[in-house]
Design brief:
The complex is a heterodimer of chains A (about 475) and B (about 325). In chain A, about 70% of the residues lie in helices and about 0% in strands. By secondary structure, chain A is mostly helical. Chain A folds into two domains: about 5-185, no CATH class; about 195-480, no CATH class. In chain A, helix 4 packs across helix 5. Chain A is globular and about 65 Å long. Chain B contains 13 helices and nine strands. In chain B, a hairpin with a 5-residue loop joins strand 5 (about 170-175) and strand 6. In chain B, strands 2-1-3-8-9 form a five-stranded parallel beta sheet, sandwiched between helices. Chain B has a two-stranded antiparallel sheet with strand order 4-7. Chain B has helices at about 1-25, 50-55, 60-65, 90-95, 125-130, 135-140, 150-155, 195-210, 220-230, 245-255, 260-270, 295-310, 315; strands at about 45, 75, 105-110, 115-120, 170-175, 180, 215, 235-240, 275. Chain B has one domain (about 40-140, about 165-315): SGNH hydrolase (Rossmann fold). Chain B is α/β, with parallel strands linked by helices and about 325 residues long. In chain B, about 45% of the residues lie in helices and about 10% in strands. Classes of the chains: A mainly alpha (about 475), B alpha/beta (about 325). The interface of A and B includes residues 216, 418, 459, 463 and 469 of A.
Chain lengths: ~475, ~325
């Protein structure tokens, strides 16, 4: 079920009321059943995959901990990783890899019919198990941590299953670590009205981001990207600009709702964003964007490559970003987007001393340097995200070419200036709030204020959501990953 | 605790109240081009895609067949090729759209290749999943007025349009019986020759691109046959292929060579008339190569009525 669906409006209160009424020792069961129900409304049969992944890592974790030799430990870890990566490949990448291989053969003059294969790939996208990349990464992190000895395996199968399937973050993260979430799921939670209110405000903020802002921007973005060869170059630039904010708000909305929903039950999920669009360097951006994934990559891909395999950092960064690109989807467009960002990161880190020296020599004010850095990073990100959004690399190149071809200044491709104005207005409002409160302390705008201010805010919120929300019940972009 | 729950309840009540108030306000004015197709029970139906939605006027059919006493009202329940291709959900909507006692309805099933296509190699599960995202899959109420089910699930824009509508285009007149009438001239805009040339070019380009990735879906064909079987129990069924320009016809014929022959044999097997206007040299005007403009739609509906009268046994139909 989608957070922004009517089903969630009755599902969530039932879960919360049940959660606080049920004795603590049975709450895991209530939440687990709720989480499985939440998932089955999206993917009735593919829940078996989720359960399979859970069982594999549960038993591998226990075996690893009890293993007498390092060899057995390694075997258990290998089993866990092979099965999880296998699930990912089978359901997400198999047709992509075979189609790519066929294209490669075609490049060397060996033709094999790929038409049906491409279509099958298309079908696999339709039937792609939702959230597969998130929960497989989460279970793998558990197995790796048990292998490393940093955590003990969870003996309670139910609590472990809940750690994998916890509904607020099941389908689009944040990718939680066992060391953070498992102890919370075991502890007794008492009702704390302040935390509940805080969680509800964060959820409300997430709904606002999704139905009022991200989905609104999506209308313009869809229009712009459906005509990559449009002569209206300014509208294509605006389409690219809006897409940056659409994907950010869409994903940030999901995270806010997930964090808020967990807060209502007394749990804390990790943050996924920290004002990424205020970054003044690429390094800073990747520490602030999709934090849970980037930390996962750092701990389980980058560090092992550099520390254990003694690989040079540059190659390790390229590998990490290649994996990040593929993680987002079975399409080379994601890989190009990711690798473009890897190249920028490498260029930035390697030119850091020269740039510092140059700025010092030119006596440029710090604010100006930051502004230049911010402008460059944002523009670069905007161009790279065109690959992310486009259906193919060719379409992305056409889009970029049309964008930089001086054409008409027409921007009102939706034929609606009010919507265009609202899009800019809401971006301005959200960025201002994020600037002052960050992504994760938005509740502070309301929570400790006087009663009358609270009520004005709540009723104002209702009016904004009702009047300016879009009833599209669009899926969150990151669901497809 | 008590105060907190009261606060939450008040918030929810106000939210729901404001939401329904604005939905109601929207329903009293212009909603969108499809809303009127979902706001009444029907005795007779026009089914198909956008060519039928804009090309067949229920009012003219009701007038032309007034002496035949077909169940009323006749509603144009055709939307477009994205929303109303033949399938499980469309059939379910048709079943729920009809008045319960209807046994003497008139049902015009418009067909074109676009009504039967799907992405290649889709199995029943994948097709069902895609169909569920469309209007007929999203809603279960096809007859209420106001239809909150439709507005809450399918209204594509914000509810501030209840106060300040921004989605209405005067050239497309939405009738209460579901007919979408396209006028070349309205109070706010007159379609130019340049517009017509551009739209025709864009439509042809779009169709060429669209057809490439599509195949004929036997699942849809099966649903179409089930639709005929169901509607035959409720009245007279007729299959129609709408007129279209020679370029569009050539495009469709190139991809689906035996389309007409296939439906001719289905019509014979099911014992229902099949009127095919696609091959005929007719002078109807379209604004984009496929959709008839107002005058032509009215003219076509009259021609259709005359042709139907010729083939329906008068003595049986008038009873």
């Amino acid at each position: 079920m989608l957070f922004n669906s009517f089903e969630f409006l009755y599902f969530f209160p039932i879960i919360i009321i049940g959660f606080y009424l049920i004795p603590n020792r049975f709450r895991w069961l209530w939440l687990l059943l709720g989480s499985y129900y939440f998932y089955t409304t999206l993917e009735p049969t593919l829940i078996l995959l989720l359960i399979a992944s859970t069982l594999v890592d549960y038993f591998c974790g226990l075996k690893m901990y009890a293993a007498a030799t390092k060899k057995i430990k390694k075997l258990c870890l290998a089993t866990s990783i092979t099965i999880n990566v296998g699930i990912l490949i089978a359901f997400k990448y198999l047709f992509f890899f075979t189609a790519s291989f066929a294209s490669l053969l075609a490049f060397f003059g060996i033709q094999i019919p790929i038409d049906d294969m491409e279509q099958s790939y298309h079908i696999s996208q339709i039937l792609l198990p939702i959230g597969i990349s998130f929960y497989t990464f989460q279970t793998m992190s558990y197995s790796i941590e048990v292998y490393r000895g940093t955590i003990k395996p969870e003996k309670h199968l139910g609590i472990f299953a809940l750690y994998v399937a916890f509904f607020p973050q099941l389908v689009a993260g944040p990718i939680e670590r066992a060391s953070r979430l498992l102890p919370q799921l075991r502890k007794k939670v008492s009702l704390n009205l302040r935390t509940v209110e805080q969680g509800l405000i964060m959820m409300a903020w997430g709904f606002f981001l999704k139905v009022v802002v991200a989905d609104r921007l999506g209308i313009y973005v869809d229009q712009a990207f459906s005509n990559p060869d449009s002569p209206h170059s300014l509208s294509l630039i605006l389409g690219g600009f809006f897409f940056c904010f659409q994907i950010y708000y869409d994903f940030s909305a999901y995270t806010s709702i997930a964090i808020g929903a967990a807060n209502v039950m007394g749990y804390n999920l990790m943050q996924n964003f920290n004002r990424p669009f205020f970054s003044t360097s690429s390094t800073e951006f990747w520490k602030r964007w999709h934090i849970s994934l980037m930390q996962w990559m750092r701990d389980y891909v980058y560090r092992p490559l550099v520390i254990h395999l003694k690989m040079n950092r540059l190659s390790a960064v390229l590998i990490v970003f290649f994996v990040v690109g593929l993680w987002h989807g079975a399409n080379w467009t994601f890989v190009v987007w990711s690798m473009l960002n890897a190249l920028l990161l490498i260029a930035e880190v390697s030119t850091n001393p020269i740039r510092k020296w140059l700025f010092k020599k030119l006596r440029l004010p710090k604010q100006l340097v930051s502004f230049l850095g911010w402008s460059f990073i944002f523009s670069y990100l905007m161009v790279s995200l065109i690959f992310f959004r486009s259906s193919s690399i060719e379409a992305a190149f056409v889009y970029i070419q049309s964008m930089f071809t001086i054409g008409s200044m027409h921007i009102n491709i939706m034929g609606n200036y009010i919507e265009l104005f609202l899009s800019f207005l809401f971006i301005g409002v959200v960025q201002t709030i994020h600037y002052y409160k960050g992504n994760n302390r938005v509740y502070e705008l309301v929570i400790d204020k006087a009663h009358y201010i609270k009520w004005i805010s709540y009723f104002g919120y209702i009016l904004i959501i009702v009047l300016f929300g879009l009833n599209r019940q669009n899926s969150f972009i990151y669901f497809q990953f | 605790m008590k105060y907190f729950i009261l606060k939450l309840m008040l918030f929810c009540v106000v939210l729901v109240g404001v939401y329904f108030s604005f939905m109601y306000k929207v329903s009293t004015g212009y909603v969108d081009e499809n809303y009127t197709k979902f706001s009444q029970e029907a005795g007779s139906l026009i089914i198909g895609t956008s060519t039928a939605s804009q090309g067949i006027s229920p009012q003219i059919l009701e007038e032309e067949f007034s002496e035949f006493n077909y169940d009323k009202p006749m509603v144009n329940f055709a939307i477009n090729f994205e929303q109303s291709q033949y399938g499980e959900f469309y059939l379910n909507a048709i079943k729920n759209k009809l008045k319960k006692p209807t046994t003497k309805g008139q049902f015009i099933l418009s067909i074109s290749p676009a009504s039967f296509t799907s992405v290649k190699n889709l199995d029943a599960t994948a097709l069902r999943k895609l169909e569920k995202e469309k209007i007929f899959g999203k809603i279960s109420d096809f007859t209420s007025n106001p239809n909150f089910d439709y507005i809450s699930n399918c209204y594509p824009i914000s509810l501030y349009n209840a106060i300040y509508p921004t989605n209405k285009w005067d050239n497309l007149v939405v009738h209460a019986n579901g007919w979408n009438e396209f006028k070349l001239k309205s109070n706010s805009y007159t379609v130019t020759q340049e517009d017509l040339t551009l739209w025709k070019k864009q439509t042809l380009e779009f169709q060429t691109k669209f057809i490439k990735d599509q195949e004929f879906s036997n699942l849809r064909l099966q649903s179409f046959i089930e639709t005929i079987d169901f509607l035959k129990q409720r009245g007279d069924v007729l299959i129609v292929r709408m007129p279209l320009t020679s370029e569009m016809l050539a495009l469709e014929n190139k991809k689906w060579k035996n389309f007409d022959a296939q439906f001719d044999s289905i019509a014979k097997a099911k014992n229902v008339p099949f009127l095919n206007y696609s091959q005929k040299e007719l002078s109807f005007k379209t604004y984009d190569g496929t959709h008839l403009i107002s005058e032509s739609a009215q003219e076509f509906t009259r021609l259709l009525s005359e042709d139907i009268k010729k083939i329906i046994p008068t003595n049986t139909a008038k009873n």
